[in-house]
Amino acid sequence: MSDARFIYDASSPVDPLGDADREAEQGRKHNRAKVGSGRPSSLLYTYGPGAIMDLPQFTIMPTGLDDWDRIWRRRDGIPQIRAPRLREVVRLLLRSPDVQLRPFPWQAKKLSMSNEGSDLGVPARVFPQWLRCTGCDMLGSLSQFDYTNTHPFRTDLACFEHAKCIGRKGDKNRKPARRPAVPARYLLACVNGHLDEFPYDQWVHRGRRCSDAEFPALKMIDRTAGRGATATIMCGSCGLTRPMNEAQGEKASDNLPKCRGRHPHLDAFQPGGCGLDTRLILVGASNLWFPATQSIIVMPESQEERASDLADQIRIALGDKLAKYRDDLEILRDVLDGKVDVSGLSDAALTQAVELAAQPPASAEEQEERIRTWDPVDLLVPEWRYLQKDPLGARHEDEMSGLTLSKRELAPGLRPEITRVLAVERLRKVNAIVGFTRIDTMDRVGDLPRRLVPLTRAVRPEWTVATEDRGEGIFLQLDETAVATWEERVYDTTLWEAHRDAHRRNFQRRFSETAELVDPDTRLKPPRYWLVHTLAHVLIRELALTCGYSAASLSERLYAWPEAEGRAAAAGLLICTTASDSDGTLGGLVQLSEPARLARVVSNALHRATRCSSDPICAMRTPQDPEDFLHGAACHCCAMASETSCERANRFLDRRFLVDLPGSELGFFGYVD
């Protein structure tokens, strides 16, 4: 069976709970003890659909969202995460007008032995399905090994075993025994995001069939510990051998097969294949899976946003019936009863919502133009605008958005360049995934739609997975007049010219060779971004010393862009800590927003930024041709942060833009004693 995009065999779907039901009907018992778990944040950013997740004894791949639908259909209702602003962006990027945001299928258990939530979970398949016996080096497919999982509370004991392993030649005791098997670690990937098993049989026989056996006995021999592909594949039937290092290097493309266009998470192939060159990639490689995500801090909705969201709910609930009932409000209310709450709306307000819901969708050309011109900053602009408003009263709590703000007075000892401080006592952050890439991150492929691997086989997906994080934070705003004046001064310096040239070199060398032409300067962040980014990092380091959270649990949200059409200039930051699997955090961070404490934190952070244990090398670091690093006076000893904290992978950092260092007087905060 095939759909518009993929060749897919629907006769053998990934349906673990359905398989269990069928076995139960036949009176067969099968041990289905738990083999692993993951937190929502890790399943979104590290081990999402199409990624490879390490379990203690083998590896698995979460499947595409089509297979998750079978899990959700076991429930009467499907929960949704309400974030209209993020939902509209996700719909735009996925080119699907009805996409909803859903959480991961999970439910907490009341007791450790109870069954609540046993019918929920993320479906996954064992991948790769070539395994190597640790006792005799036998290389075989999954069906050649036995699966063992006998202990319901020891997930680490679930494993695949070679039932009659006799060990290697030269072993003293070569009696048959059960020995564990581990995943064969080599895979093939292409720049279009396809992933495939490595063809070991074809590899060792150089594209031919084995001369001595229809199903040859293969072995993977790996006696050395080194970098790269150190193993050798041997055919025990005909005696041929071939080292895996021939699959690496400049001539690897001549030795490897062309891409078949396989998406194992979808159990599907691209029609006609892919045809691009493949690359050898290891199971645990860091460039195997890069998620493409979008996130927002949920803000109180405006009247226009509420009206648009209501119209959207009506449109989805009625579908084709909207045109039939739009002029009969009495019947319309009856049809919407239980689906959309319109009981509190007047007839005039309901009519307005229905008219808005009945508006024709944008044409394909208009949609593509919106995608082409869409800027990720557009998600940040409404947050910045709302944070410019003073909270209503000493402590303003918005129940619908979950946002609680308190305005803080500015302490006499606080730097005058900081003009506004808000204590964000409660916040809700929603994150959604729209796809992923392999080999190159999304910002390295020119945002090409064809490089974004879909999460479903459907052309127009109905939903995508999202998470809700709840926590707290501190918002700081810088003096816009001072920032603009400082920024103009930086543009005319040799230091900024050096950073811009380094960015061009970095872009040209590391930008994907399959991407369209993009002007490197359009991806270079302005000086104010470097300033705000560096300030956020030094504050995270200082806050972590006293707030009770580790530096890795604090994250930044940067509002730094010059004035443009439709948006005012911004220069501010939000440092927050959030948790995706609890009701919130402990309040230790927001306590440091109190005037006297914050003044001390900022003063200490700026003072620490003037010194680094790697100075003077760090303080004078400026990229020169052929160097292409994207930071200046910043290193892991002074300003760099963990990958969980930084939204730019420690790029666009320079302490010289923050404070005056020896030989430089470009610091926004000037000389700090």
UniProtKB/TrEMBL annotation:
Region annotation Disordered: where it falls in the sequence: 12-37
InterPro entries the UniProt entry points to: DrmB (IPR047721), MZB (IPR018973)
Location of the MrfA-like Zn-binding domain: 535-638
Biased composition (Basic and acidic residues): 19-28
Name of protein: DrmB family protein
Organism field: Sphaerimonospora cavernae
The organism's taxonomic lineage, starting at the top: Bacteria, Bacillati, Actinomycetota, Actinomycetes, Streptosporangiales
Name of the gene: drmB
